Amino acid sequence: MILGRRDVLEVRRLCKAFSGLKAVDDAALDVRAGEIVALIGPNGAGKTTLFACIAGFHKPDSGVVRLDGADITGRAPHRICAAGMVRTFQITQPFATISVRENIMVGAYARTSDRDAAAARAEAIARQVGMGAQLDRRGADLTVAGRKRLELARALATGPRLLLLDEVMAGLNPTEIGEIVEVIRAIRTGGVTILLIEHVMQAVTSLAERVYVLNQGRVIAEGTPAQVAADAGVVEAYLGHGAAARLGGAHA
Ligand SMILES: Nc1ncnc2c1ncn2[C@@H]1O[C@H](COP(=O)(O)OP(=O)(O)OP(=O)(O)O)[C@@H](O)[C@H]1O
């Protein structure tokens, strides 16, 4: 047992329905200080909705979200950001006509109102995510990989203790995935705790100490990447009813 690792994030009995569809159904999870935790699950499992409820973009129907022990359930995103938690978005939307530097400064203004300080912070963070040479490029001129890095940088510029990453590797090639995995690892080494939604299993396996699996709004498994990959219920959720038996003894 690891002693002394406190919970940064606690989610309990969280529910969110859309017109009767239970997108998140009694979900619970914990993220401890310094961890990288992954949230995985088939398409439509409720991962993004759970993130949105945690970060204040949706008001949950019921349940509790605690950040460092404080109840933040239903608080507005900017207040949650000020409290030290920020999320990125799956669909990246950089400001197209302004530079990478200015895009990152938008995040930095969450911590400072001084323009020079925000610019200096933006430049330091750009270097941290490997965008030091692209500071003057316009948002519109970035590749998919560049937009993903910028999304990460904008979030990081707000100075979070807990960073929620929604599919930052989607659409990237294996080389780009390898590079962003290293960036994420370095962010954690710098003291930021990370919860990430990810479909790229190679990245989940190499980054995450623990994984939660969501299916139809419910957490169906939790454990190390190897433990959840060997879980019959998880195999069923991804591949359909009876899959575990069809795959044979290893998953039965
Ligand atoms: N704003 C909304 N209004 C109505 N239904 C929604 C809304 N957002 C999500 N849903 C539905 O809630 C369910 C969960 O969606 P969600 O996007 O959270 O899943 P996901 O696990 O993030 O999926 P993916 O991996 O495909 O991004 C889906 O059935 C989706 O259609």
TrEMBL record:
Sequence ranges assigned to domain ABC transporter in this UniProt record: 9-241
Keyword ATP-binding: yes
InterPro entries: AAA+_ATPase, ABC_AA/LPS_Transport, ABC_transporter-like_ATP-bd, BCA_ABC_TP_C, P-loop_NTPase
Gene Ontology annotations for the cellular component aspect, listed alphabetically: plasma membrane
CDD domains reported in the protein's UniProt record: ABC_Mj1267_LivG_branched
Record key words, sorted: ATP-binding, Nucleotide-binding, Transport
A molecular function (GO) term: L-phenylalanine transmembrane transporter activity
A biological-process GO annotation: D-alanine transmembrane transport
SUPFAM superfamilies assigned: P-loop containing nucleoside triphosphate hydrolases
Gene3D superfamilies, alphabetized: P-loop containing nucleotide triphosphate hydrolases (3.40.50.300)
Name this polypeptide is given: ABC transporter ATP-binding protein
Organism, as annotated: Vineibacter terrae
